[in-house]
């Protein structure tokens, strides 16, 4: 609440991307990523994009094993399962996603 008594709701709008004039929930992209056999967890956030306005950026936690060409495999997988504007522009491979004490992913830390 500000000094004039107005309440501002923040947080939920950041769970959606507006890519090329189309809106998609980050969770929909995350669901597709988790269908890929080599991942344990995934989180998607928005990043600025000159052409689309916003683009998806995916943080992924791989299963143990060879991760040498994981980003290329993920890109190819997404091309088969997602519309072109919703394919993440970047894949960031990390050991674990930051979470709060309740186990919810802290996407604000990933941004």
Description:
Strands 3-4-5 form a three-stranded mixed beta sheet, covered by helices on one side. It has a two-stranded antiparallel ribbon with strand order 1-2. The two termini are 24 Å apart. Helix content is 23%, strand content 30%. It is an alpha+beta fold and 111 residues long. The model has no long low-confidence stretch (mean pLDDT 88). It is globular, with a radius of gyration of 15 Å. It has a single domain, classed as GMP Synthetase, Chain A, domain 3.
Specify the number of helices.
Answer: 3
Looking at the structure, the CATH topology is: GMP Synthetase, Chain A, domain 3
* CATH 4th-level superfamily: ANL, C-terminal domain
Strand order of the largest sheet: 3-4-5
Termini distance? 24 Å
Query: Could you list the spans in which at least 5 consecutive residues all have pLDDT below 50?
Result: none
Mean of pLDDT: 88
Q: Please bin the fraction of helical residues.
A: 10-25%
User: Can you count the beta strands?
Assistant: 5
Question: What number of domains?
Answer: 1
CATH class equals: Alpha Beta
Overall geometry comes to globular
Order of helices and strands: EEHEEHEH
CATH architecture: 2-Layer Sandwich
Our estimate of the beta-strand percent is 25-35%
Radius of gyration, whole Å: 15 Å
The class by helix and strand makeup works out as alpha+beta
